[in-house]
Amino acid sequence: MRAGCVGRAVAAVLAALLLLAGCSVTGTRSGPAPTASALPPAPVPLPLALPAGAVPGAEWRITHPGPEHAVEGFADRTSVHPGDPVHLFVSTTAARYTVTAFRMGDYPPTGAAQVWVSPPQPGRRQADAVVQAPRNTVVAPWNPTLTVDTAGWPPGDYLFRLDADNGAQQFVPLTLATPDNTGRLVVVNAVTTWQGYNRWGGYSLYAAGTGRFADRSRAVSFDRPYQAKDMQGAGDFLIFELPFVEFAERSGLPLGYATDVDLHADPHLLDGARAMITLGHDEYWSTAMRATATAARDRGVNLAFLGGNEIYRHIRFEDSALGPDRVEVDYKSFEEDPASRSDPLEATPQWRDPPHPRPESVLLGNFYQCNPAQADLVVADAGSWLLSGLVRDGQRLPGLVGNEYERVDLRVPTPRPIEVLFHSPVTCRGRPDFADATWYSVPSGAGVFSAGTQYWICGLDPACRGGTSAPVIGTITTRLLTAFAAGPAGAAHPAEDNLSALGIA
Questions:
Q1: Cα–Cα dist 137/242, whole Å
Q2: Quick one: signal sequence residues (predicted)?
Q3: Omega before 109 cis (within 30°)?
Q4: Domain for residue 366, yes or no?
Q5: Considering its fold, how many domains does the chain have in total?
Q6: Residue-wise pLDDT tens digits, 70-117
Q7: pLDDT tens-digit series, residues 400-437
Q8: DSSP for 405-470, written as a single string
Q9: Which residue from 37, 185, 472, 494 has the least number of CB within 10 angstroms?
């Protein structure tokens, strides 16, 4: 969510206490916690072997984006398993172009490995965007241009760079999902949020070609490129996700990869996993996504939310001509959504809104507040296992709260015990407030960390926002991931409630 402070509808939220599993979390020690001997063996960690001819450390960045529509494309899947083909749809004003596939991760000095290059392809300008009434859904009615065989490619996050012979360049993102996440820390790319903000063709879930908010899309399609401006065709991957991917792969821990469309489509995605990790901006969630994450937590899978605006927009999926779950529906209104009359729980107001409020705090611990905000991250619990020996109470880590943030708000359902690690004064749109990073544990043994700020991942990189604080954020994150990889971290590190000590009531 990038516009406006949130009207919280607090009174209506209380009616939702029994609507989602997990609302009644009250402790960390009732019931047996999973033991290390009961856990499946950890798989071989990354890095995985690259295919023959791959070039680790290859230069991957776009240096000449070119004019709008000079070259652009999209894939017919948001993710595939290694070995599955993916079809690319490319349009260009150039006579020829090539496609280069890069796996993003721990490949010094650039953070990418070149794994494949296409032969030169004949270029053509494909049809203009079509805006489908009545929901103002933009699609690119294009023909497929080439098929890419991913045999031998390891799971991970990939960028296809389109290089046209007129000098223009753009990306197409693709996740190679891990077929079996047993023992892994599953990194989930938030493609539903990327698509919600994608303005290619003039429309997104926020904007309209007319300039009128009322004319925005009510459904957006993955059957179109991501916009060139801001996104470089890569969605929000470069902004909110890439620094974590590079950081996590340096840890050598066993990672898995998926998109949130996979989380929606496969209720068994997290079976046997050690953790699920969502990244800097993971705002758009379906009912199935939320149910799968909640069920995983309640059987001992750890969760980390490394952003400041998760599980805010409620979406549902529809199929497109290219396949299942390619259309993302969000009216941002209960009354306007036709599902309010046919299937009310699948209508698409915000998750917290009436008439069926299911606030995100039930799963996150903290609760989205406002944007835009800029503030220092302030230590509240230096004795925590995540912070011990690194910082002192009251210490400030400059500029790491923003652009959106969350805090503990006891007017909505909140898991207890819950431990506030950072309690940071912030002013948003003239209103004084706090941003809270939190840790809670549940009877299954799982632990849940929520950063409460979108800048956490940028804080891992000294050149982004981390500065001199990057080593601290990096060590905290390494401790978290290492504990997650060992098993149910809430059993090893049960939360110690400190809300009263902080004056949170």
A1: 28
A2: 1-26
A3: yes
A4: yes
A5: 1
A6: 999 999 999 999 999 999 999 999 999 999 999 999 999 999 999 999
A7: 999 999 999 999 999 999 999 999 999 999 999 999 99
A8: EEE--TTS---SSEEEEEEEEEEETTEEEEEEEEEEE-TTS-EEEE--BTTTTGGG-IIIIIGGGH
A9: 37
Strand partners, 80: 176
Residues 6+ apart with CB under 8 A from 258: 79, 175, 177, 178, 181, 186, 187, 188, 189, 269
Under a CB-based contact definition with an 8 Å cutoff, are residues 230 and 274 in contact? no
List the CATH number of the domain containing 469: 3.40.50
Residue by residue, what is the 3-state secondary structure of 312-379? CEEEEEEEECCEEEEEEECCCCCCCCCHHHHCHHHCCCECCCCCCCCCCHHHHCCEEEEEEEEEEEEE
> What is this structure's pTM?
0.91
Q: Residue 5 corresponds to which tokens in the numbers above?
A: 């402070």
| 450 vs 276: CA distance, rounded Å | 12
390 part of a folded domain? yes
Q: Tell whether 112 is covered by a domain.
A: no
Residue 421's domain comprises 10-39+274-312+361-492
Rounded distance, CA 105 to CA 373, Å? 30
pLDDT per residue over 21-30, tens digit each? 333 333 332 3
pLDDT of residue 505: 79
Low-confidence ranges of the chain (pLDDT < 50): 2-38
Q: Measured in whole angstroms, how far is the alpha carbon of residue 393 from the centre of its chain?
A: 30
